[in-house]
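> run fold DNA-processing protein DprA
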Amino acid sequence: MVDTPEELGAWLRLSLTSGIGNEGARKLLAAFGQPEQVFAQSESTLRQVVSATQARHLASLPDGWAELTQETWDWLQNPPSADTACALVTLGDGDYPAPLLLIPDPPLMLYALGQTAALQNLKAEQSLAMVGSRNPTPQGQANAREFARALASSGLTIVSGMALGIDGAAHDGALLGAGVQALATIAVVGTGLDRVYPRQHRELAHRIAQRGLILSEYHLGTPPLNANFPKRNRLISGLSQATLVVEAALQSGSLITAKQALEQGRDVLAIPGSIHSAQAKGCHALIKQGAKLVESAQDVLEELRLPDPFAQVPLALDVASTGVDSEDELLPLMGHDPVGLDALQARCGWPTARLQAQLLELELMGQVGRLPGGLFQRIGSA
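> ok
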């Protein structure tokens, strides 16, 4: 980990130098050693490794470098709470996560917030990436939480991106299921770690830092830029032995993560959904292309060749519903696909007022979700 302001300043200067990037920085480090040695070279010597333009840029200080160095050093020295820590690990550092050294484009620097002592012990075979839609169906959200809870209970660390929807549910489920001393979950974000994005996940981010890690390759102050999120996905898949896609449309960013997992030699798994749901079509496409179809946490553990400490944990939709009034026959009639009020009324034959009242009651009980377009969907419960 970075230990002095001078060391920090050299790494930040290298990463901020225009036109260098991760690839150019790796070439320079391979040729000269630490960043301090890079900046000690003459421009003519640097031109033997990088282009003349890059060598010229290395000779000048990047804009904002001094301010960022001071801001970052202050952040490292002042963690947000007594039981969390801030750290900055650099390529070649002993604490740098070993799984990321195996991906094609490892980040030059990695900011960490939370249980940073776990960084040096991260192993891909102990982690599973879970990704999916930012606008999931109620069933998809329930599946993400229940799968994550069951898999974290089995000892896996759940890795995701702290986005709305499936990501947030996966982190939450992992925190619910993981043992007290376990590294429950890792969030890889697309902003600087001095901000929480989306804001709705401020409380979730705090909980993750208490029992897991939040990681970013982006400098403090980096805003939520669209280009950063697909790029960070390679780290989500790279930290994990496999990627489970819970729910995704055909154009979902989750499919980018799945593609990167395959390019990294990792497995891809997918949960099927309703043939009528646009949010399931990305998963169905992955399954057609060879992704492992999973219906339970046990399926995941078997695919990863891990022992299952529990009996089979099925999809949330397969667990018998409880707490419904004895006279209610609505849930079986709903099935598991989204359904409109008119279609549901045709199935049950109930007066509109009774049907709407029962749907509201089931919604308040968390057994039915209300979808856009006046649709309703049954939600399984554990």
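Confidence is low (pLDDT under 50) at residues 310-327.
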